[in-house]
Specification:
0% strand, Mitochondrial carrier fold, membrane, 312 residues, mitochondrion inner membrane, globular
């Protein structure tokens, strides 16, 4: 009797352990925060290049040198608090919703196809773009502030103080300045980054016989970073211009009007301005994010007793 009872109790435990792991919602945001700490200087240089004025350095190395010369090494981490806040809102939301949808569609045992992954990524990216917009506005402003003339600088001390000051001076609507290009970028970013990572990872394992290990994660995330940078570049430039503009500069300008003005002044090359620093930043950021995310998942599976090979 005792042996029979023990068997009945242990069976559900083994079945649960053998099931697919359901990961916490916040894993993507946590991994993105770690990645942001590594790649923030590259993100700052990208923003400076996209918003540069007359006489400003036009190369990535020149911008690095200019920042260090005028603001010191710590100047490369200007706006880090806003960057972390952005990851806590934007990335937590988009990764969390994407993983929830992926778990739902994998419940039948058949992994979702590429088109389904893209659809899930677009949905989660759009919601994440809206959730993270206030922090994104602050991130762009804090990174570009030191490049402005002293009389035009906002001098935010940190992200939360900046959000309060911006709301008081420009109204609550300023928190969602550029929300549509930002949400569009978030859709493109999430679809080209998350969906392509899962697709490339599947190709590496299923078609090239690679194991689910660090090399596979690195390869898939590198390719995903390349795709994401190229797809998002035009929208990223527009988003940066809109968010960094003062109320006077943005008054009376629609997105289409801004597009016409940029194209007239700078030609079609504006769409990929800052592509190299964007890739140099987004490539390592994408790699770091997914490597940290995979480690989060690996540790979680060990703690939950989920066997390797039975995770989503």
């Amino acid at each position: 009797m005792a042996t029979s009872a023990k068997t009945e109790v242990s069976q559900p435990v083994r079945a649960s352990a053998a099931g697919k792991a359901h990961y916490p919602f916040w894993f993507g945001g946590s991994a993105s925060c770690f990645a942001a700490g590594v790649t923030h200087p590259l993100d700052l240089v990208k923003v400076r290049l996209q918003t540069r004025g007359p006489g400003a350095p036009t190369s990535m190395l020149g911008t690095f040198a200019h920042v260090v010369k005028n603001n010191g090494i710590l100047g490369l981490y200007s706006g880090l608090s806003a960057s972390v806040l952005r990851q806590l809102t934007y990335s937590t939301t988009r990764f969390g919703i994407y993983e929830e949808l992926k778990s739902y569609f994998t419940a039948s045992g058949q992994p979702p196809g590429t088109l389904t992954l893209v659809g899930m990524a677009c949905t989660s990216g759009f919601i994440g773009g809206i959730a993270g917009n206030p922090a994104d506005v602050m991130n762009v402003r804090m990174q570009s502030d030191a490049a402005l003339p002293p009389s035009q600088r906002r001098n935010y001390k940190h992200a939360f103080q900046g959000l309060v000051q911006m709301t008081r001076a420009e109204g609550p609507a300023s928190l969602f300045r550029g929300v549509w290009p930002n949400s569009t970028r978030a859709v493109l970013m999430t679809a080209s980054q998350l969906a392509s990572y899962d697709t490339f990872k599947g190709l590496c394992i299923d078609n090239f016989g690679m194991s689910d290990n660090l090399l596979t994660h690195f390869t898939a995330s590198f390719l995903a970073g390349f795709v994401a940078t190229t797809v998002c570049s035009p929208v990223d430039v527009i988003k940066t211009r809109v968010m960094s503009a003062s109320p006077t500069e943005s008054a009376g300008h629609s997105i289409l009007g801004l597009l016409r003005e940029i194209s007239r002044k700078e030609g079609l090359g504006w769409a990929f301005r800052g592509w190299v620093p964007s890739f140099i930043r987004l490539g390592p950021h994408t790699i770091a994010t997914f490597l940290f995310l995979e480690e989060h998942k690996k540790i979680y599976r060990k703690l939950k007793g989920v066997p390797e090979g039975q995770h989503a």
